[in-house]
Amino acid sequence: MRNVDTIAAISTAVGEGGIAVIRVSGPDAVREAKKFFRSRTDIMEADSHTVHYGHIVDPADGEVIEEILLTIMRGPRSFTAEDVVELSTHGGVVAVKRVLELLLREGAIRIAEPGEFTKRAFLNGRIDLTQAEAVIDLIRSKSDRAFSVAMKQAEGALSKKVKALRHQLIELLAHIEVNIDYPEHDVAEMTSNYIQTRCEESCSIIDGLLKTAGEGKILREGIVTAIVGRPNVGKSSLLNALVQENKAIVTDIPGTTRDVIEEYISLGGIPLRLLDTAGIRETSDVVEQIGVQRSRTALEEADLILLVLNLNEALHDDDRLLMKQLEGRPVIVLLNKTDLPPVLNEDELYAIVSKESVVRLSVLQESGLDQLEHAISRMFFGGELESGDLTYVSNVRHITLLGHARQALVDAIEATEAGIPIDIVQIDVRNAWEQLGEMIGDSVSESLIDQIFSQFCLGK
């Protein structure tokens, strides 16, 4: 699918910076840029993937608008597989805005829609849909590990596995078609065994991909982590230690934190969305009551709860009540203030929670944070993260479609075992093939494509 118009947008973040980049893509990208670009080089004759120094000039009055570097990438050797021109201007809002307005003024170039450059790369066949969606994950990555997983998907690691799986299924469909067309040569038992074996092999491959779904989703979206506990046990100090910045106000006065403070961190390659909550206790302070209620809401939404207890104090009734309320939830109990003489009765604590869920630390001395990292890794990943060559499935759409494909294959196996004619079994196998095709974009509706690319930022 080729596009007939030329689009442009600012591809760098708005604000002050060393440079800003305007991307132009489409059949008239180079010709339209030539109208405004003054240089010793005729860019119409310039080679692809070359950079040229010059100025942007308003042709109406000859005013020099900006000093730029212009990069030419001719299709199909470009991100969109079309002719692409990138204009590198001085950073800042005014300079890049003036250049973009000049490009759009005559109407031959229009402003790009969100994600339209990546959408064109997909429609023009340079990338498939899983690779396009990986671009969003690259932009939104919150840890090195998440970025590496997204990069592998952008390079086509997941696509290759799905395409290989579809190739197996199309061979199976071809085998079934032959037996339907030439039933006199069909050995029913042999065909039945062949279909079951191939479907089971495909199910095994899908199971291997789905096995990574939980970890992949965590790496993609992060673990929503609520830091809870009574007032003044060190919750905000823990947040500051993990973030390595004084994001939360810390005082000796109980009830200082009145609202939920949110921060993203990467702990050992695991992205965490930390929620520092107000101390949970009974209080007559109206403002603090609102903070406590918001803390309870954060508790309900959390994937992981870090319950902070003060090792320098005996267990309080509020501590016991909190632990009771958190039964059955993923909780790591943090015994804080190990730098002070211990007072808390640990035997009583271990009668309520398992010893394996307890981590001893001193936020003041920043000791024990590595044990916290190991505890989180053990809880969510069974120990260490998988090796770097593993392909993770992290996108909810991908997980859903893989599940549907697997179910279709299971239906085909059960139908074969029940002696149902193979022309009916063929429907289930083809359904699995189509579900995988929707995953990579071979068979997908226009509305779904629009929905996916509308999540992108402008200029990507």
UniProtKB/TrEMBL annotation:
Localisation: Cytoplasm
Binding residue positions for Mg(2+): 236, 257
Keywords, alphabetical: Cytoplasm, GTP-binding, Hydrolase, Magnesium, Metal-binding, Nucleotide-binding, Potassium, tRNA processing
Record: residues binding (6S)-5-formyl-5,6,7,8-tetrahydrofolate: 23, 86, 126, 460
Transmembrane regions listed in the UniProt entry: none
Broad class of enzyme this protein falls into: hydrolase
Occurrences of domain TrmE-type G (ranges): 222-381
Annotated positions binding K(+): 232, 251, 253, 256
This protein's record includes keyword Hydrolase: yes
Cofactor(s) it depends on: K(+)
Signal peptide: none
Enzyme Commission code: 3.6.-.-
Binding positions for GTP per the UniProt entry: 232-237, 251-257, 276-279
Cofactor details (free text): Binds 1 potassium ion per subunit.
Tagged with keyword Manganese: no
Entry-linked PROSITE patterns: G_TRME
PANTHER family: TRNA MODIFICATION GTPASE GTPBP3, TRNA MODIFICATION GTPASE GTPBP3, MITOCHONDRIAL
Function in brief: Exhibits a very high intrinsic GTPase hydrolysis rate. Involved in the addition of a carboxymethylaminomethyl (cmnm) group at the wobble position (U34) of certain tRNAs, forming tRNA-cmnm(5)s(2)U34.
Oligomer status and interactors: Homodimer. Heterotetramer of two MnmE and two MnmG subunits.
Assigned protein family: Belongs to the TRAFAC class TrmE-Era-EngA-EngB-Septin-like GTPase superfamily. TrmE GTPase family.
NCBIfam families, sorted: mnmE_trmE_thdF, PRK05291.1-3, small_GTP
Protein's recorded name: tRNA modification GTPase MnmE
Organism: Paenibacillus oenotherae
High-level lineage: Bacteria, Bacillati, Bacillota, Bacilli, Bacillales
Gene from which the chain derives: mnmE
